[in-house]
Amino acid sequence: MADTSSAAVAASVPSAEERSRVEDFTREPFVHEGETLEDALAPGTARRRAFDAALAELEGGADDLSVGWRREYSLLLGLERLLFEEEPHLADGTLLSAHQVDALAGTLTALTADVMRNGNGVNGAGPETAELAPVGIPGEEEDEEEDEPEEPVDFAEDADEDVADVPEDPGAAKRFWFEHATGAGKTVAALGFAEASRTGGILILTHRRNLVDQFHGELRDRGYSDRISPALLGAKDPGNGPVTVETYQWFVRNAGKVSDAYTIVICDEAHTALGEKTSASIRNWQGPVFIGMTATGALIARHVTDLFPTQTSRFDLAQAARRGVIAPLRCVRIPPGPGVRTIAKVPLRRGEVDTEFDQEMLAELLDQTPFNLAIADLYKTRFNGVPGVVYAAGVRHAYNVAKAFQDVGLKAKGVSGETPKRELAKILADYERGKIDVLVNAQLLAEGWNSPRATVCMHLAPTASKRIYQQRVGRVTRKHPGKEAGIVIDFVHPATRHDDPVVTLHSLLDRDVYRGGAIVVGPVRRGRGRRVRVERRVLPVTADPDRRIEVFERELWRIAVEHLDYGEQIQWAALAGARVAPSGWRRAKAMLHFDRNGELKRTFLLTAVQRNRNSQLRLRALQEIAASRDPDAFDTAVDVVGTWSRDERREGAKVLLQALAEKRIGRRDQANAWIWRMAEYTREVHEEYAVQRWPETKRLLAGGGHRAHARGRGGPARGAHADGAQAERPGA
């Protein structure tokens, strides 16, 4: 039995001559370093299927690999070759980072699963493999199956069989996407696919013509200039793995005419391919492998996964900053001021991908000369000489803001889609050379423009779209010599929460606490280079009540109380009164300096009297309540003192009685009542004192003292009136 099995295995292993022929034909190795021939080309594996299919084409007399083989196996074998290297790299020696390798490896895993699922194998039947689940929306399929129509619907008997035979989107299994933060090297990852595919053509689609030029520059710089090819239409097929870069508009215009030489289609900024015409053109072309890449896929994941069902890798903004792949990000919030009306009145408009403010109304609201000049003065005061990019609300607003910047002496320039291409190229080149420090635009520079020099990102026009916001922020995430961190300026109130329509850096990254000028994401490096002052105090900005409570517990003595809403100010005052220590008493009171009507200070003092564990602080709070001459607070304090221990009651009553003797607090009848209540609190102490001083009083107290007390608190007062004495204000 063993001899028979060994003979079968030996017969299934290709000969050295067959292996050499197939490797020359496919331009790919089938056995990598450290592998044995038996393991590498074991029957039923994806690599063996690729080998057998190529050998069959050779034996059939083919001179070149078929389009079908290249679509099925070219990228798969190339990715295996590239990832088997100890340090995967491009043609020019550029090493691929961990997250770029992760994108390639995820795609390889998905391709292998697809081949094992759909391939025929050597004998026409491969092993069944579990289907790869889409990453974007877990459980979506189950929810759709459970939904039932509200009313009964009659179906034809054979309808289920007919529907099952026709898949809704037959090419979906070969469409993948990965998310990498802006500045983390998506372009280099895309060139990793070009390095992997030696025989299959690659079509790179992007949404702007200037990005085509950028991709061509990257291809030349990375050693792939000999593979750059003009667009191939019809039957053109050079068979040498051409790389073409075109726009989505070109792709839609030529849908159905693009050459089958392209076996891989890379969709840059994949969210821009979600339009009706572009997505339909992609779905109708079922042959190639489609790979979408974007920095904002998680923000609109439901839409991206509609077109690209399987996510192969994720490396978001927070991960990239923490690992030091991109520059850290600081944030400064600046209230727009009374000169600009609240944008709450600006309606939201639903677009194809996400929701955004009405841009015309937003421009009308923000484009005010005093406001523009104030912004220019602010930039000059705080960021003079620091290169930045400002996002305005429309073309006209952008040029007006640029004019205001120029008027205060800043080297600024406004650009828009109306700027001639040559002039725009010159302006961007001047920006890189330092002749221009500030570029003002509406949305032109939110995508596809990369300048490592850019440091300040000013959101002069707020946005309700997290996708747009992250694209803007991505302009300042690239590292550059002398750049300590990217600086993001949000024109919102410092305490703006995450549930506000305006997107901020903290809501984008779901951070709980805002601290002006501090690092929001990324490693904190102490030293020179910091461009902004970091505030000492913080604010909770999360909308989750439980997380806000955690911030109060953790950052109680650093919270900027004046920026909280009134309800939370009361909560802070109560919590501070209960927890304040002797060393922090003055600081706690100073944090309530803005309290005009005294309600917060009153809450702080009363809570200190009621709940603070330090007896000296409780007495100090009593003194300050008495000094405030607030009768309601004084009355509450008298009640609380009655709950204290004997010795503490004596000291508390002493403080309160001294205050009544020195100043007028409340009405006369209230003062009388307070005196008798405190006399009751300290009765035992006075009796003990009297017995010690005059021993004979013990008999009197035992006999008639208690009966006199039982007559009521009004007895002595009535006696005084009966003697005809003038009623005087009680004294202690």
Please state the second-level CATH architecture of the largest domain: 3-Layer(aba) Sandwich
Widest beta sheet: strand line-up: 11-12-10-13-14-7-16
CATH class of the largest domain: Alpha Beta
Q: State the low-pLDDT regions, or none.
A: 1-10, 120-166, 705-732
* Overall number of structural domains: 3
CATH superfamily of the largest domain: P-loop containing nucleotide triphosphate hydrolases
Helix count, per DSSP?
31
How large, in whole angstroms, is the Cα Rg? 38 Å
Alpha carbon gap, first and last residue: 113 Å
Q: Provide the β-strand percentage band.
A: 5-15%
The fold-level CATH name of the largest domain is Rossmann fold
Structural features, described:
By secondary structure, the protein is an alpha/beta fold. The chain folds into three domains: 20-136 and 169-315, Rossmann fold; 329-533, Rossmann fold, CATH 3.40.50.300; 614-722, no CATH class. It has a seven-stranded mixed beta sheet with strand order 11-12-10-13-14-7-16, sandwiched between helices. Strands 3-2-4-5-1-6 form a six-stranded parallel beta sheet, sandwiched between helices. β8 (348-350) and β9 form a beta hairpin. α6 crosses α9 (186-196). The radius of gyration is 38 Å and the shape is elongated.
